[in-house]
Specification:
Strands 1, 2, 3, 4, 5, 6 and 7 form a seven-stranded mixed beta sheet that branches. Helix content is 40%, strand content 16%. The mean pLDDT is 92. By secondary structure, it is an alpha/beta fold. It folds into two domains: 9-70, no CATH class; 86-233, Nucleotidyltransferase, domain 5 (2-Layer Sandwich), CATH 3.30.420.
Length: 254
């Protein structure tokens, strides 16, 4: 397989069922175009800087934007991650992703959500994620940078997989409301109590040490330069880049 082709024929066959049907003129070679999209996101390039071997950069850009609006890359990630073995132990965390100035320019009012907020670190977005016991992302959610971990957990909670028995999180997820919600799903929370708690909950420090797996997952995602730095104004376009990176790193070879 060429260094410029990121998808083998077997890998392409796994994700082809989630492609939209072509109408009229057949699409340009899916394997080549998708490899070009992956190359741009992995290396943080402008679309016009994509190697000529992938064909016109406008073709790459148009395919990426069109399929992002259709939710194709989100659907590929969701379906492949759902095919993994059921994990009894889950880990939850969130990380900030720096927004470049090109991502921070305003959109037309009400056109698309941006999910960009201001924190001490400047303008950024926040990625909330749940991973399995192997450190593979199962659920991801993008919000504005100032969104608290607790609110992110509320957004993720309905999608927690059946069969999970434990959830490991840091102090940002310590609340009676979230603990009760997890218990209602028969999930045991392993979350250290915040300082100053009158009645701090007990947790297993040995099991809590597994939480480093979600940190490693975030680090591997940020190796992809258009994930580590957000250049896209529209949240759904940027989230597609995250889904592509997560699929290629953790799920395409399963």
């Amino acid at each position: 397989m060429s260094d410029l082709i990121w998808l083998s024929k077997e890998q392409l066959s796994r994700i082809e069922p989630y492609f939209p049907l072509s109408h009229g003129v057949p699409r340009v070679d899916d394997r080549r175009v998708l490899s070009g999209i992956i190359f741009v996101i992995r290396n943080g390039l402008r679309w016009r800087d994509a190697p000529k071997e992938y064909g016109p950069h406008k073709t790459l850009y148009n395919r990426f934007i069109r399929w992002s609006r259709l939710g194709v890359f989100d659907r590929i990630f969701s379906n492949l991650s759902a095919q993994g073995d059921v994990s009894e132990t889950l880990m939850i965390d969130a990380t900030h992703l720096k927004a470049h100035r090109t991502a921070s320019s305003l959109l037309k009012k009400g056109l698309f959500p941006r999910h960009i907020g201001r924190t001490k670190g400047g303008l950024n977005s926040k990625l909330h994620a749940v991973v399995d016991n192997m450190g593979r992302p199962l659920i991801m959610c993008l919000t504005a940078g100032q969104t608290s971990d607790h609110i992110g957990a509320k957004l993720i909670y309905p999608a927690l997989p059946e069969g999970a028995k434990t959830l490991i999180g840091d102090k940002g997820y310590d609340s009676d409301e979230f603990r009760s919600a997890l218990t209602a799903k028969n999930i045991q929370p392993y979350i250290p109590p915040r300082k100053g708690r009158r009645h701090p909950a007990e947790f297993c420090e040995t099991l809590y040490k597994q939480r480093h797996k979600v940190e490693i997952m975030f680090g591997r995602l940020k190796d992809w330069r258009r994930v580590a730095t957000r250049y896209d104004r529209c949240a759904h376009i940027y989230f597609s880049s995250i889904c592509i990176a997560a699929t290629m790193i953790f799920w395409i070879n399963q």
